[in-house]
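Why does residue order matter? Because the sequence determines the fold. Keep that principle in mind as you read this record.
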Amino acid sequence: MENQTASFDRRSFLKVSALAGGGMLIGIRWISERARAFDPAFLEGAAFNAYIKITPDGKITIQSPNPEIGQGVKTSMPMIVAEELDADWAHVVVEQAPLDTEAYTRQVAGGSGSIRASWKPLRTAGAAARMMLIAAAAEKWQVAPETCVTSASIVKHPATNRQATYGELASLAATQTPPADPPLKIPSEFRLLGKRIPNVDNQAIVTGENLFGQDLKREGMAVAVVARPPAFGLKLVSVDDSKTKSMPGVQQVVRFGNKVAVLANTTWEAKKGRDALQLQWAPEGELESTDQHDSALRALLDKAAETPRRKDGNTEPAFAQASKTVDAVYECPFLPHNAMEPLNFFADVRPDGVLMAGPTQTPESARTQIAKLLQIDPKKIRVEMTRQGGGFGRRLNTDYAVEAAEISHLAKKPVKVVWLREDDMGGGIYRPACKYRFRAALDAQGNLTAYHLRGSGINVGNPTRENNFPAGALPNLLIEGHNLESKVTTGPWRAPVHNFLGFAEQSFLDEVALAAGKDPVQFRLDLLDQAKRQPVGRQEYQADRLMGVIRLAAEKANWGQAPSGVFQGFSAYFSFSTYVAQVVEVVVINNKPKIQRVVCAVDCGILINRSGAENQVAGAIVDGLGHAMFSQLTIKDGAPEQTNFDRYRLIRMAEAPPVEVHFVESEEAPTGLGEPALPPFAAAFANAVYRATGKRLRNQPFVQPGEPGLLG
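Structure:
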């Protein structure tokens, strides 16, 4: 296989300069359509977006544009550059860049897309820098560039045994012309990618350095805790803050919109001041409840959609002629996100500009909303990103950052807004509650002849994913979706829609396979083979790759050959361009199933950091198990009934199962890993539980409050 080349215009993609004091600076347009000139401050060593810097001491610095929420991009992104650069990893560091839409296109942590979007630009930057360093060495030694080789941040000329470090060559390299199409390595040449590399922030985290938004402190900063409506659909009628204003540490009380902020010296003083507020609220219309939601969602399952999401063939004749039909309903509740770091954001609104800093998955959206609120040019707003103690989609919403800006503007001082756990769970943004009805038709040979899915969800838009497998694998398919509007705020939650649909869909396919008298693994493989031979309509998945992970998981788990007393469940799912198959093994102890092992096969293309990848997969599995088992948020009279962990059960460390992760060896471009392992897990577990107990789990959570649990 010949070396790959990158097709980037060197004049627009790369800009190269010498550093003040020696060294080399490479500017990357980073997928943006707009070029960017050098920032003089960065030439002196200050931070600036979109640049790789090589200093005379050999240190290579990359500014990472994407928010770090635990997905490991501050490690994996510089690894990609270091690979193509042939850099010594010990000399590579990464710095978090602030928001800059002129330099970057996608400064977002969401959709498992950070590596997918930056893969080629990062490689090209590293490869171009390597070629320029070789050119510098060749000029210095008066030899042909093609006679030089690189490794571990050193250029060598084997014929004469000469060598020079990247730091020694950096200044001269900065005078070289950037190559238009630097050759990229083929996967067999990778020396760093695919290895286990510790997270670059590990030491800072364990030694307590100030990395997170909660750590942030600025001179003159007040801490704000906000009183928000205690139920969805309430309006603030009156405020008595006389007692609050006299309390120790309280600086100011600010009313804005339907909220009241208490500003104080510390979070505790602000919280106590908020507790002392005398507030009166009045309902605006009927207050909602979970019982009402459930009734409305179930009613929609009996109603045909005006316009189907997808319609292949004609399902009704197939159902009428079926030898056997399978019908099942699956239900899931609202879920809060519960990131371990509570929501917070810092704002300093001044006449000459605005400084924002804190944990956000979408800094550009925050800036846009704040500019609209303050009616100022977005270019006057600087957004700095801290490391984040989890996101799970909650920090894709910018409400808490906008709050900070509005309070700072009204209070005329720098402010950090802090949400307590009760604030986020009690008045935050939730995963939509959804329900699904599945129907399947089987002929006399057990072949799937028709498939019908009708979904309903609260403020979800489209509760289905109409191109999911088995779409494209059978002639008659109907996908319908209903949206139920509500005052309850909903938003993306780790693997939006997929997070429950994957469970429901893969559990139902297990039911269908058993009804057909077929092995669940072979049943899927047969359908995928049909999707290859006789595809119907649109297929977003590649049948061969999905078959690959199915076979790998089955092989590694010895599917169908478990010892007596060990019960296996299977699922396979495609999301965010990644293919995942899982086998869960359970044993029954004291009449309860206990997970003995989870075997997971993943095709995410080229593996960047094996350690980080395994962590993402295992973390998604544990997250999927905990929320499927225990988690739900219910509404009564408009108010959430679970507002802290005393009434909202999380999975415990002792309940986390052993996880084996097997990656498909691939030369495909890398795809997402933060979310894809979560959707299929609950189905593999539930399918194993069915084999162990005969009980089919269709509704989450599997364990209701007060029950001891299923995990033994």
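The first helix runs from residue 10 to 13.
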